[in-house]
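My main concern about presentation is that the manuscript never shows what a single data entry looks like. Each protein is reduced to its one-letter sequence and a matching series of backbone shape codes. For the editor and my fellow referees, an illustration may be useful. For illustration, here is how one protein appears when written out as sequence plus structure tokens:
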Amino acid sequence: MAVARTYFRGTRYEDLGVHTVPERRRHHLALACVTSLCADITARGHVPTWNCPVHDRAARLLARTAGFRLVREYVQYAVGSPVVHERLSA
């Protein structure tokens, strides 16, 4: 129903990614997965990190609830199909 995984692993940091099926959101499943994964990353001697786009309010809220703090905001660029501007205004 929810999964958290290491999205990118460096020599010191591990950036995580999270996915929850839509019908199970707001049941705190993702928070439980993130909490467990962060404990596992820390036990390996690495530092958990989390990157998410500025407009992804749900991911930012989950990150903050899990204890992450904002270090900096960034601009995300994409090539190919144009970005839908309505989604960026949230």
About this structure: DSSP finds three helices and three strands in the chain. The mean pLDDT is 86. The longest helix spans residues 29-43. The CA atoms of residues 55 and 88 lie 6 Å apart.
